[in-house]
Amino acid sequence: MMHDSGGVQMARVLKHATLCLMLLPRFLVAAVMLWLLDFLCIRKKVLLKMGAKQDSPDDPPVCVSDSNRMFTLESLRAVWYGQKLDFLKSAHLGRAAPNTEVLMVQERRQRVVSQYADIADFLVVYIEEAHPSDGWVSSDAPYQIPKHRCLEDRLRAAQLMLAEVPGSNVVVDNMDNESNAAYGAYFERLYIVMDERVVYQGGRGPDGYRISELRNWLEQYRNDRMNSHTAVLHV
Ligand SMILES: *[C@@H]1O[C@H](CO)[C@@H](O)[C@H](O)[C@H]1NC(C)=O
């Protein structure tokens, strides 16, 4: 009995150590990047370059005000957490989409969503805050929201989103952050799920967050569907 639990504990420690080792290289790269971004001349250049790479007006530009420090204990903690979630997520392209528990906030429908309403349902899953007022603070955040301590906090914050989000249904992640973990969603991420499978997996936001990619996928899908319908009619 004693031996067993010792073994189990050892396995857990080993697993954790392996995870740390595997994540360390990309974490260090991100940390150096954040450190460099605190030199405003470098930040300006990097943001300019990132802006130039964005060739679609759909993709929101990454903006960081000069007053925001990028290299802090909280930012490093947030980046580590995000990379860990990404590494451990269970959602993978082409595989079954995790069916996590979420809570309904309100149903809504607006313009952008209605463009693809014939082929897709849109769902916004509000997860934890990327820039809570008691964590990695950002003066660019439109609202000052502390870390959610309970579901009521989260639901209240999600209500704010309803006013801003262009359409779609809004639900919130549960307090175990199950959806966030399964989809490696932190800070933000786009997915397309079809027949319970992941058919599109966007990159990690903010830099990997590309609405244009999502739009391209949906356009392609719609075209393919129309073509196949035509083919059937010809036969
Ligand atoms: C989920 O995230 C919230 C922050 O929004 C945090 O307070 C809570 O402890 C997290 N839950 C777990 C199980 O990690």
UniProtKB/TrEMBL annotation:
Residue ranges crossing the lipid bilayer per the database entry: 16-40
What is the top-level taxon of the source organism? Eukaryota
Q: Does the keyword Transmembrane helix apply?
A: yes
UniProt keyword annotation of Oxidoreductase present: yes
The GO terms this record gives for MF are: thyroxine 5'-deiodinase activity
One Pfam annotation, family name?
T4_deiodinase
- Annotated GO biological process: hormone biosynthetic process; thyroid hormone metabolic process
Give the keywords, sorted.
Membrane, Oxidoreductase, Selenocysteine, Thyroid hormones biosynthesis, Transmembrane, Transmembrane helix
The similarity comment for this entry is: Belongs to the iodothyronine deiodinase family.
Please give the function described in this protein's UniProt entry.
Answer: Responsible for the deiodination of T4 (3,5,3',5'-tetraiodothyronine).
Q: What is this protein called?
A: Iodothyronine deiodinase
Lineage summary: Eukaryota, Metazoa, Chordata, Craniata, Vertebrata
